[in-house]
Amino acid sequence: MIRHLQIQGLAARRGERTLFSGFNLGLATGEAAALTGANGVGKTTLLRIVAGLVQPDAGLVTFTSSEGALDAAEARAGACHLLGHQDGLKGARLAEEELEFQVRWTGGTAKSARAAAERLGLTRLLRLPVRVLSAGQRRRLALARLLASPRQLWLLDEPLSPLDAASRSLFGEVMAEHLAGGGLILAAVHDPLPVTAREARLGA
Amino acid sequence: MNAFGLLLRREIALAWGRGGGPLLALGFYAAAVVMLPLALGPEPARLAAVSTGAAWVLLALSSLLSLERLFERDFEDGALDLLSLGPLPLEAVAAAKSLAQWLIAGAPLALAAPVAAIALGARPALAGLILVTAALGGLAFAFLGGTGAALALAGRRGGLLVAVIVLPLLTPPVIFGGAALDRLALGLPWLGPLALLAGYAAAAAALCPFAMAGACRNALG
Predict the structure, then answer these.
(1) Is residue B182 over pLDDT 60?
(2) B16 touches B104 (CB < 8 A)
(3) What pLDDT score does B1 carry?
(4) Could you tell me whether strands A153-157 and A80-83 are parallel, antiparallel, or unpaired per DSSP bridges?
(5) Taking an 8 Å Cβ-Cβ cutoff, which residues of chain B contact chain A?
(6) What is the CB neighbour count within 10 angstroms for residue B211?
(7) Is B78 in contact with A88 (Cβ distance < 8 A)?
(8) What pLDDT does residue A133 have?
(9) 3 state SS of B176
(10) How many angstroms separate the CA of residue B157 from the nearest CA in chain A?
(11) CA distance A64 to B60
(12) Which is the most buried residue in A155, A164, B77, B89, by most CB within 10 A?
């Protein structure tokens, strides 16, 4: 169980250019933070650093439980969802095959995948190949994995952008439930999140 | 079902669809085998002399065909991010991908290899050893080719890199396999080269996943 996520003095660079430096953020269970900033300021990179996919230039990301510091690799592999622009869904495969794989790979079951699909209004679409889904439907399919496999820390990169108003408010409910259940959310956004969230601004 | 089985099943399904699946490699192999007599001339004695060696080298090249994109699609569409945050380390993910590639492309090619060699004039008695050699060699090719594909992720002109890195690594198994077949054809003991081939394949399967995972992490970061 992650109790607290701490980001200290984080710096990242892409090539020669420094994206950001000295970034600090603490996030406890039940809290959400909205990561804002102009395009290209490094929001996606920050999320990927927290997920352990990118090595930071400087700084530390630490996960703590009630018993003390957690092994970062273990915390990431077992308790962290990263959802970005690239959702990893294969266009040629059926939506249900892709959803079931993603859910089971991240620790859920076929049953929880089905329940999540129903909740997000995807049941009708499950027998279709992913490639025929609209951008919003595809994003909902990707979001279903968050709902179906219980992982505490959600790292979301522009999660709402292709969604319509109804889906946004539905996903707002899902996020509020996740936070109420002890989850943590760090989301890079341009529009306000549909849940109470602290703002963490990146860049000047 | 455990995580490795889950991933392997998905990779087999993906490999089946990727670039025509086994048909691409098999089709290329068949075309190359058919063209050989057109280039060498139809004398049975000449063809029979090169039949096993030619069938074996063409198999090595055919098995590389669909390997180049082993990681590329997953890298581009974000699936590699998801796979990195799963229950298995990337090393196991890479092993599952290579294994699926072997099952989908390598195993059908291994079955086709004796047919190709006999069609070119090899003695049917060699068929068993050709099958074993092709299966073992295919395993080595899948893991070595996967390593090249992973290394190519971070760079432009990945295809060229795969050829330059992988082809030298493919020479030892080609030599060992060819030597085993040669010796059987001449009535000499052939177990030595076959054991070397098996050892090479085992080493590739054991070590290449680490190289693939390292290369993938490098490309993601």
Answers:
(1) yes
(2) yes
(3) 57
(4) parallel
(5) 3, 6-7, 10, 13-14, 17, 73-74, 76-87, 220-221
(6) 19
(7) yes
(8) 92
(9) helix
(10) 19
(11) 50
(12) A155
Check: CB of residue B150 under 8 Å from CB of residue B69.
no
Q: Which residues of A touch B10 (CB under 8 A)?
A: 101
d(CA B103, CA B5): 14
pLDDT in tens, A132-147: 999 999 999 999 999 9
For residue B76, the chain A residue with the least C-alpha distance is: A86
Domains of chain A, with CATH numbers?
Answer: 4-201 (3.40.50.300)
Would you say how long chain A is, in residues?
Answer: 204
| Whether B165 contacts B151, CB under 8 Å | yes
For B92, residues 6+ apart whose C-beta sits below 8 A from its C-beta are B4, B7, B209
Chain B neighbors of A86, CB-CB under 8 A: 76-78, 81
Closest CA to B133 of B90, B168, B169, B184: B184
DSSP string covering B64-129, please?
A: HGGGGGTTHHHHHHTHHHHHHTSSS-HHHHHHHHHHHHIIIIIHHHHHHHHHHHHHTT--GGGHHH
Per-residue pLDDT of chain A (204 residues; tens, 9 = 90+): 888 899 999 999 888 888 888 899 999 999 999 999 888 888 999 999 999 998 899 999 999 888 888 888 888 888 899 998 888 898 888 999 999 999 999 988 999 999 999 999 899 999 999 999 999 999 999 999 999 998 999 999 998 888 899 999 999 999 999 999 999 999 998 888 888 888 888 875
β-strand pairing of A4-14 with A80-83: unpaired
pLDDT at B46: 87
The domain tally of chain B equals: 1
Nearest to A105 among B14, B74, B82 (CB): B82
Contact (CB, 8 A) for A140 and A36: no
Contact B87 A78 (CB under 8 A): yes
Phi, psi of A21 (to 5 degrees): -150, 160
Q: Do B82 and A82 touch (CB under 8 A)?
A: yes
ipTM of the complex: 0.89
* Domain membership of residue B195 as a residue range: 3-220
